Structure formats: C-alpha cells, structure tokens
Amino acid sequence: MKLQRKNRLRALSLGAVAVSGALALTACGSDDTSGNADGGSKTSTAAASKIDCGDAKGQLQASGSSAQKNAVDAWVKAYRTACPGVQINYNPTGSGAGITAFLQGQTAFAGSDSALDSTEIADSKKVCTGGQAVDLPMVVGPIAVGFNVPGVDTLALDAATLAQIFDGKITNWNDDAIAKLNPDAQLPDLKIQAFHRSDESGTTENFTKYLKAAAPKDWKYEPEKAWQAKGGQSASGSSGVAQQVKQTSGAISYMELSYAKDGIKTVDVKTEATEPVAATAENATKSLTEAKVVGSGKDLALELNYTPSAEGAYPITLVTYEIVCDKGNKAETLPATKSFLNYIASEDGQAQLTEAGYAPVPDDIIGKVRETVSELS
C-alpha cells in the first residue's frame, strides 16, 4: 500500500500537467479513438436528442483510466452535440494518476479500473466537503491479451502459462507449456517480449488479480496498480502497450479489447469450460453476472469472479468506475457533472458502449448508479 501511494504521489505532477493541458474531446476524436467510437454517428445523434443538459455550462475537467477512453470519446461526442455550452476535458493519464488528481481537488471526477481503498476514501473527505468519494461502475470490458507471433493466428493460454510468461519464467514461444495448449500451432523459436504498463493502472491491477486468483502457485505478487513483477518491458498507457505489441515480433501484453485493433490478435483463455474463451464484450458480460456489490452506502464497488466456469465466460474482465463526491462537489461544476454522469449511466449512454468495444453495466447495478447520480450535491 505504501508503494502504491508513493507511486501515486510521483504521478501527481504528470497528472496535473496532463489535466491543465487537456484538449477537449470533440467530434474529431484522437489517435487513440477506436473506429467504432467515431463511426457511430447515427447512434450519437439519436442519443444526443435525449440528453438533459439542465444548467450545465463551462469546462469539466476529469482524468484517469485509459481503459475507458474510447467509451468517453463516444459519450463526449454525443453529449457536446446536445450541450455545446459544456467543454469536457478527459485525460487518460491512468487510474493511479487520475485518483491522485481527484484527491488533490484538480478534477470534477476520476476514472479508475479499480475501486478506491479505505485510505483513499478517507482522504477524499478533505475534498468532498461534508461527504466522501463514491465508486460508480459505468463501463465493463474484457482485458484482452494481445500477441504478435509470426505464423500464429490463434493462440490459447491458461492462467498458469500467462503467469509464467509475465513473470519471466517462460521465455520462448516454442516452450513445451505453450505447445501443449496449442498442438496444431506452428510455434516459432522466438523470444517472448512481454510488455506491461509503466504507469499506475487499474488494468494492471485487474489483470494481476486474475493471475493471483486463477494461478496462485505461479503468481506470487499482490495485485497492485503498479506492476510488481521483475523483468519484462514497459510502455505507458493502453495505447502504448498496444503499439508495442503491434510493432514488436514476439510481443505479448494486456490491454482493453477496444485497443486490440488494427491487426492485433488476442489470446483465447483456457478456463474450466470445455473450450478456450475469446475476449469479446458478450463473453465479458457472461462473467460479470457473478459480480457482487461490496461497497457500503452509496458506494457501488464490485467484487468480480476471476475464475468463472460457465461456458463462454471470459475471466479477465474489468469494470471502470467514475469516482465523484457524493456531497461537497464544487458549485461551478456540479450541474455539468450530474448532467454528464446522468447521460452516461442512462439507457442511451450505456447503449453506446457496445459500438465502442465495451459492454454495458448490468441493469440491477446501473439502476443504483442512476439513483446515486441524481442525489449528488
């Protein structure tokens, strides 16, 4: 925990610079925006017609999870069509930097792929006058394991093998453990180039939670936003690791499905089910049916099951939360915060997730999110 918080403080200066230098997300999108997010113009226009802007105006600063960036791009595009008087600046600086910026009062809300811990909730009371921060689940998506192995189009791996690859115990693509899981593949004699996130990331925490839960004998490290294993190579952000996989022969890394594009192949994960499971939004939703709300009061932090046994249930799944004060929000940003969060939690906002490469939050949970957003003050 001390290491995690120390790293977050080191990330503060980066987060502050990124927030202050934010560019508004507009219809032009950005280099990280998925084709699906920008391609859904009809859906965006239809969704925009139902958005309630209320008294929202001015600029809304937010930062954090890069996992949800493609979803935020689609949401902002629709929202700005309906509410041109609001400029939303979302910076995908990573979950750790986003939480740090929020706890320092720099942003109206943060995006994080893991819920706040007890210390962070306590710290939030300094920013949320008369209240505290709460976790609002808004985005569901599979964490895909992208690979670049010449001559191999389909690859199945289990938790134990993934753990050994990312811990530097399996170092070549023709290793017996990989060959056993892929008897029909022509595995080359090629060094494995394993990439992890260099920044604090909820994606890292969720990926290592899966390794710890599904392969405890092979993954000895505690799940953290900061990468704990030794060795390997690193890159910043989801787009960074995706780019490394795309351009590096022998590479493998973890990333949100929406970043596994432009020819990046993804691993089918071997579970207790009969067949290995592909990383798809539909398969992620199947595993999320076993999630439980473990937060107290208005906090809607979830506990995920990383070892599902159902057929077609993809085990490496994350939920991205929007973190906001339940009480004590700044008066000048509260109307825009409530309006935007109300939209993305709405049926129309959630419907955009599938087009952007994600999955909507289950009805029983998103209903509670809408109730909490309506009561923000």
TrEMBL record:
Signal peptide (residue range): 1-24
GO MF term set: phosphate ion binding
Keyword 4Fe-4S attached: no
Gene Ontology cellular component terms for the protein in this record: ATP-binding cassette (ABC) transporter complex
Domain of life of the source: Bacteria
GO terms under biological process: phosphate ion transmembrane transport
Keywords: Phosphate transport, Signal, Transport
SUPFAM superfamilies given in the database record: Periplasmic binding protein-like II
Residue span(s) of domain PBP: 56-347
Chain residues that bind phosphate: 65-67, 95, 113, 201-203
UniProt similarity note: Belongs to the PstS family.
This protein's name: Phosphate-binding protein
